[in-house]
Amino acid sequence: MLDRPIAKPQLDTWSPTLLDPPPSDIQSGLRDALHKFAAEVVRPTGRALDRMTPEEVIAPGSPFYAMHEQYRAFGISQAAMAELPPQEAALLQSMAYEELGWGDAGLAISIGVNGMPASVARVIGAPEFAERFPETKFGCWSITEPDHGSDMLDSTRQAFALDGQYGGPSCVARRSGDDIVLSGQKSAWVSNGVIAEQAVLFCAYDDGKAGFRGCVLYVPLDAKGVSRGKPLDKLGQRALPQGEMFFDNVKLPKDCLAADPDEYHDALYATLCLANSGMGSCFVGVARAAFEHALEYAHERKQGGVPIIQHQNVRARLFGMYRKVEAARALARRVAIHNATAPVPALQGAIASKITGTQTAFEVASEAVQIFGGAGVSREYPIEKLLRDARASMIEDGCNELLAIKGGSQLVRHERMN
Ligand SMILES: Cc1cc2nc3c(=O)[nH]c(=O)nc-3n(C[C@H](O)[C@H](O)[C@H](O)COP(=O)(O)OP(=O)(O)OC[C@H]3O[C@@H](n4cnc5c(N)ncnc54)[C@H](O)[C@@H]3O)c2cc1C
């Protein structure tokens, strides 16, 4: 005989925390507040911006700015997170990205990249830049160039073709007396690029030595010689403004240099760990949104006289989606906590989180389209947008196939290669 009653299984309700351990007060407080904000502000704003032209998205008076103002009023700052134990801060950050991604992927990324100058400063061991370039301003991470997409994320050449050459950079910094002079351009893909007030910028450094030499610079974007291109028109994440940045002999004081060529590989490693891990959590939110919509619709839509969830194939499809969302979240949180607490973050873990989160978002959104049937491809319903948003994520922050090669390269034990 059992000395306690057998608990009645609750299989008819689903909540985002069903498989999580009970949250602490601070965790449930942050998650519930952000969920409300995501439902009431982020999601409707993202849907409205998705229908606008890129120019309208960034025009004065656009709801894009009102959303950011409301988010700032929450006071969820990295400085506040830094006061918490790293494990708790990482879990909260992961929960926050998931809720924001659940609301709208493009706006979640826009909020995330505002914090990139400060968060990169912390992970590359240059915290003074976090004070000088705070997340309260519009920020960006500027690395991709017209001639260098994937290869900018692969400074250690783990994924280069055997006969591959880097070629010439599109954007170069060089020392001139007490200044650093920046010339060239960054590609149209820089998130927040057209509205950012400050950039953490990764580019080539010309110190007269052979081969690619990189550096990390902090650039106030009101500096003389900085200009921007047109905002980019694109398939998904349309609420996220992106566009080219041009640098015409921009003079910066030498104390804008945060990592020199000798520190560049480590700085890029730490930044990719940070960015890919954030992407993993954010796109779990997109996957969850698609799953929830599909679950709801499957109870509403009747075919053959029954709600379609009565059809066994629909149930099996929904279960596959549920399983993927839970697995992706478990990985995203595990990686976030590991990388915040380990002496050296695991790039292979961050890449696994990014690929799993974005691939899951795409697959679950695609399954959701199928459950919605014809309504799934109609712009009247939210599903087609989720599919478009998720599709872009498999390229964003590194194409998944390039990242997989880098992740695999992390697993090689070089001492066994002789
Ligand atoms: C929504 C979105 C947001 C973004 N945000 C930012 C941002 O904030 N800041 C920023 O700087 N950039 C940003 N990017 C740019 C993004 O990081 C690049 O698009 C990405 O690194 C790929 O570069 P690319 O587009 O030039 O593609 P390419 O590098 O030209 O790749 C084209 C194809 O070739 C494949 N390929 C290339 N090299 C290899 C290789 N070595 N091995 C195997 N396959 C390879 C790729 O996998 C891909 O399929 C963003 C992109 C998107 C879509």
Describe this structure in words.
- With 418 residues, this protein is α+β, with helices and mostly antiparallel strands.
- The chain folds into three domains: 25-132, Butyryl-Coa Dehydrogenase, subunit A, domain 1 (Orthogonal Bundle); 139-263, Butyryl-CoA Dehydrogenase, subunit A, domain 2 (Beta Barrel); 265-412, Butyryl-CoA Dehydrogenase, subunit A, domain 3 (Up-down Bundle), CATH 1.20.140.
- Helices cover 49% and strands 13% of the residues.
- The protein has 13 helices and ten strands.
- It has helices at residues 25-50, 54-58, 63-74, 78-82, 86-103, 105-114, 116-123, 128-132, 264-300, 312-341, 347-372, 383-393, 400-410; strands spanning 139-142, 171-176, 179-186, 198-206, 214-220, 226-228, 245-253, 257-259, 302-303, 306-307.
- The strands form two sheets. Strands 1, 2, 3, 4, 5, 6, 7 and 8 form an eight-stranded mixed β-sheet that branches.
- The longest helix has 37 residues, at 264-300.
- It starts with 24 loop residues before the first helix and ends in an 8-residue tail after the last helix.
- The model has no long low-confidence stretch (mean pLDDT 95).
- Bound molecules: flavin-adenine dinucleotide.
- Flavin-adenine dinucleotide binds at residues 113, 140-144, 149-150, 153, 159-160, 189-191, 237, 392, 395-399, 401-402, 405.
